[in-house]
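Async update (no meeting this week)

Hi team, since we skipped the sync, here's where things stand on the single-chain job. The sequence we agreed to prioritize is pasted below, unchanged from the tracker. I ran it this morning and attached the output directly underneath so nobody has to dig for it. Comments welcome in thread, and please keep replies under the output.
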Amino acid sequence: MSNASEAICAAYRVLGLEPDSDYASVKSAFRNKVKAVHPDHVEPTADTLSRLQILLKAHEILKVCAPRQQDLVLTPDEARVGGLRTVDLDGRSAMIRVPPLSKTGATIVPIGEPVWRVRILVRDPMADCAADEGPAERAAREEKARKLAEADARRQADESAGLLSAFYERFVKASPAARFARWVRKNAA
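Output:
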């Protein structure tokens, strides 16, 4: 093992995490452990300051090296086809290659971003209405439901317009003989 990988493993051990844990869990573990030794919470002693320094160094190492994770929600059709996608990684756009026939839970490393991991979530917004849906999934489901409702309203409007135009043609619109008689009366006067 190289010195860099030994330092990374030691930093994970200091925070009590498994190697290759993502940055969100590193951040959470650091915050929980630093409360026990921070001078704002306990009386500063040589031991607590030493432990605080070790925690800060571990966090500094993992801040750079710990993988970050981003979720990408795909529809079943998108997962079946695969292709190139762009994802937002803390304000930066990155490209990923989604392999065809991707399954939920697959992890992809974005092109040129070795620290990031993109987890694939295959969800059908209309079928997966589980309680654990995220805001993006909920928004996609609501958008699809809104589009279906608009299409249904448009279809009903077209049907009623067809009935209305049939009624107009049959009962309201004057026959050619009636129009001719109206023209004669108008011009005769």
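Quick observations from my side:
The beta strands are 68-74, 83-89, 92-98, 107-108, 116-122.
The helical segments are 3-15, 23-34, 46-65, 76-81, 135-172, 176-188.
Reply here if anything looks off.
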